[in-house]
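Q: What residues go here?
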């Protein structure tokens, strides 16, 4: 099973644990027993050998009511079924008081964090983040941000050291991911007011999933009520035109094509003319995958960008290639000044370095993430989602990722 961003998530968790241990080592640890504020226990009256209690617990904002019966002077706990088939517990007389108390680990005294306290942990963290495919510049930014936030920080016994470290790390990552957001729907609406189509040009190397990504975006735009036409600008790869036409049939969108080997700019230009003549809202233009070392093909994509004058140039990168995706994005950005990024195969990315690094490396936002093999499996990128994914649970992602296929 692939755990999304699992490697990066574990590296961050380990760093938090090590820094927290350093703080406790410096300040000492004591245990504080206090009432459990999330539990409200009421006991029914008039019972003899067996008493019943109702415990209302708060779980992620939802109230869950559990009925528990216990025998006096008994410490055994058993699980039984109630008449509705749901589980209930039989809990001993003394055990029930454990539900009303929590043991909290706290600092023994106030701690002021120094650079010496965390220097060795940050050095380890630097190497571990690089192993998770996080770009070097991004690693340095995270380390610098943590030092700035934590060195000289006073932590009192009333504070949770782990929360302090996690919040500092979250802020560092939020700063890295927070590039200027692009609202593609606003761009489409503004072009509609001028009776012109919005033109999005897709670029990238071979095999990153450009054609499929274009089809996914076409499907999503159509679901939102926009009219779309696809331009088969990849006239180089064998079967590329036919592949896009198959996707077009599947999602109910017309494809403008020329013969194999035709001029890519001419194909896209014709698609734009077609869209203008028929009042179509969006042109999604495919291009041939190309290595940035191929000077002729890079010159061609520069020409396409000059002729077409797209509203957005979108780089499509494969998250599984890690730092290679970042290098490719930088080189395409230098060639044609890309506006944003779509990362594919996020559902199979166990490291997470590319998703964390790519926006910071080129100073351009991630627009969408490819999360599966259905046409609807393209999710808008959200910084808060990424941060929560790295520090939280997988429940939301389970709802997003599907093993079903449309193609």
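A:
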């Amino acid at each position: 099973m692939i755990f999304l961003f699992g490697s990066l998530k574990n590296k961050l968790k380990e760093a938090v644990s090590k820094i927290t241990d350093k703080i406790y080592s410096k300040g000492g640890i004591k245990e504080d027993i206090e009432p459990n504020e999330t539990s409200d226990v009421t006991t029914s009256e008039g019972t003899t050998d067996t008493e019943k209690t109702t415990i209302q617990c708060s779980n992620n904002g939802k109230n869950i009511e559990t009925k528990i019966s216990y025998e006096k002077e008994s410490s055994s706990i058993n699980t039984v079924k109630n008449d509705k088939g749901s589980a209930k517990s039989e809990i001993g007389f003394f055990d029930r008081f454990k539900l009303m108390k929590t043991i909290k680990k706290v600092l023994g005294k106030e701690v002021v964090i120094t650079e010496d306290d965390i220097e060795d942990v940050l050095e380890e963290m630097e190497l571990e983040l690089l192993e998770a495919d996080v770009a070097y510049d991004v690693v340095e930014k995270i380390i610098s941000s943590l030092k700035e936030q934590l060195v000289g920080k006073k932590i009192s016994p009333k504070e949770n050291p782990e929360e302090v470290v996690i919040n500092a790390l979250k802020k560092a990552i939020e700063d890295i991911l927070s590039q200027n957001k692009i609202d593609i729907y606003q761009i489409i609406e503004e072009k509609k007011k001028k009776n012109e189509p919005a033109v999005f040009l897709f670029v990238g190397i071979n095999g990153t999933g450009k054609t499929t990504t274009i089809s996914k975006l076409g499907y999503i735009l159509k679901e939102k009520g926009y009219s779309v036409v696809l331009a088969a600008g990849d006239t180089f790869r064998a079967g590329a035109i036919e592949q896009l036409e198959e996707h077009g049939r599947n999602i109910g969108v017309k494809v403008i094509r020329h013969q194999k080997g035709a001029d890519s700019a001419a194909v896209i230009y014709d698609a734009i003319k077609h869209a203008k003549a028929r009042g179509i809202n969006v042109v999604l233009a495919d291009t041939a995958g190309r290595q940035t070392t191929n000077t002729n093909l890079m010159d061609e994509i520069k020409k396409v960008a000059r002729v077409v004058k797209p509203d957005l140039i979108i780089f499509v990168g494969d998250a599984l290639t890690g730092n290679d995706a970042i290098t490719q994005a930088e080189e395409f950005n230098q060639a044609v000044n890309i506006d944003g990024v779509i990362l594919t195969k996020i559902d199979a990315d166990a490291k997470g370095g590319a998703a964390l690094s790519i926006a910071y490396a080129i100073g351009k936002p991630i627009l969408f993430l490819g999360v599966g093999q259905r046409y609807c499996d393209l999710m808008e990128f959200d910084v808060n989602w990424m941060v929560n994914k790295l520090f939280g649970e997988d429940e939301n992602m389970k709802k997003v990722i599907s093993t079903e296929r449309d193609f």
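A: Context that may help when evaluating the design: Residues 26 and 111 are 7 Å apart (CA to CA). The chain has three domains: 6-28+109-177, 33-105, 184-400.
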